[in-house]
Amino acid sequence: MIKIVREENKNINYIEKLKERAEELQVDVNMTVQKILEDVRKNGDEAVLNYTNKFDSCNVKSLLVTEKEIEDAYKSVEKEFIDAILLAKENIECFHRKQKNNSWIMTKDKGITMGQTVRGLDRVGVYVPGGKASYPSSVLMNVIPAKVAEVNEIIMVTPPSKDGSINPNILVAAKIAGVDKIYKVGGAQAIGALAYGTESIFKVDKIVGPGNIYVALAKKAVYGNVDIDMIAGPSEILIISDENGEAKYIAADLISQAEHDKLASSILVTTSEKLANDVYKEIQRQVETLERKEIIKESLKNYGAIIVTSSIKKAIEIANTISPEHLELMVNNPFVYLGNIKNAGSIFLGKFSPEPLGDYMAGPNHVLPTSGTAKFFSPLSVDDFIKKSSYIYYSRDALEDVKDKIIKIAETEKLTAHANSIKVRFEK
């Protein structure tokens, strides 16, 4: 089970262990991934269908999900689920509209005009885990920013169940979010199809969405041929709390992250020895009532920790070093400390803003940097689905004003053809 450690304990190598956890993901599956990608690149739909029937289902004859399948999905899901998805969509759209950039133009003396155009990408592929898993929230979080960015076409791929069907909750979420086409394909073969194109699946400009190690390594392999969002690692949460923290809430939030998988990381950093012990007891009590308790126990044993520290300042230092995917600031007046949090994917303030609120409903994106990459990566946003072009217009008089300086720089760099491009415009 989770362990309690003290800040002054010199034997703590917790941060190093978290780094090793990320390395554990680099299972030697690259050869398999490369073989699948090459097969898909050469043989298109034939290869995709072969791998789909081999790994996921033997009942897939056509990759494209039909309108009838989507209609049937609507009939099979609960109205309450549809209502919840519609509200989540509204909140996510509202948040992401604030991120939208606009094209702009500026003018200067002598007829100089410059500016920048902002356009949505032409075609984006969204990978959604499938089979036993069902994550309609991932559909919303990956598709809605693309829609706000005005991406021309959004293609979704997701592995089918054994009977060849797609989870109806996934299909309904995709329809509500605005996906244009859905294909029954998962794994590295899905990434290959999106990256290279096949007879039925168009090549995309960017691939986003979480997946297993095969999906992650396939995305890494095709990067450059297409853009990708990020290489996602195991999920993680870090909670900072003072003596006023609610042990029951904190335990529940740590456990909720641990249930993702055995490599998930759940950390509490607190200034209170009493709270540390209370949370430890609460975790033991709550775990026994949960379906995924074996996964939770393994995760907490290997990558969970309750760290007792001397001050909130020190707790924040630890958090900034770890740079967690999710950070809960469960202290009195959390806004006082918000400016001190430098490295975190998403920050949750106060005892009534738990991490699942961000996963499903609040509006900020739940596709977040993991494994310490919050030091330099950001959550998925509208910016991930746009491209920018700059433009320049100079009149003859405006160019003449700066021609000698341009020529000087070009000749200093020994690029005489560049200098000549300017000179010829002013030859008599």
UniProtKB/TrEMBL annotation:
Annotated coiled-coil segments of the chain: 5-35
Q: Which reaction does it catalyse?
A: L-histidinol + 2 NAD(+) + H2O = L-histidine + 2 NADH + 3 H(+)
InterPro entries linked to this entry: Ald_DH/histidinol_DH, Histidinol_DH_CS, Histidinol_DH_monofunct, Hstdl_DH
Name the Pfam families on file: Histidinol_dh (PF00815)
Which cofactors are required for activity?
A: Zn(2+)
Alphabetical UniProt keywords? Amino-acid biosynthesis, Coiled coil, Histidine biosynthesis, Metal-binding, NAD, Oxidoreductase, Zinc
Query: Where along this sequence does the record place binding of substrate?
Result: 235, 257, 260, 326, 359, 413, 418
The residues the record assigns to binding NAD(+) are 127, 189, 212
According to its UniProt record, in which pathway does this protein act? Amino-acid biosynthesis; L-histidine biosynthesis; L-histidine from 5-phospho-alpha-D-ribose 1-diphosphate: step 9/9
Q: Which Gene3D superfamilies match?
A: 1.20.5.1300, Nitrogenase molybdenum iron protein domain (3.40.50.1980)
The catalytic residues are: 325-326
Q: What class of enzyme is it?
A: oxidoreductase
Which EC number(s) does UniProt give? 1.1.1.23
- State where Zn(2+) binds: 257, 260, 359, 418
Q: How is the cofactor bound?
A: Binds 1 zinc ion per subunit.
Q: What does this protein do?
A: Catalyzes the sequential NAD-dependent oxidations of L-histidinol to L-histidinaldehyde and then to L-histidine.
Q: Which family does it belong to?
A: Belongs to the histidinol dehydrogenase family.
Record-given protein name: Histidinol dehydrogenase
**Gene assigned in the entry:** hisD
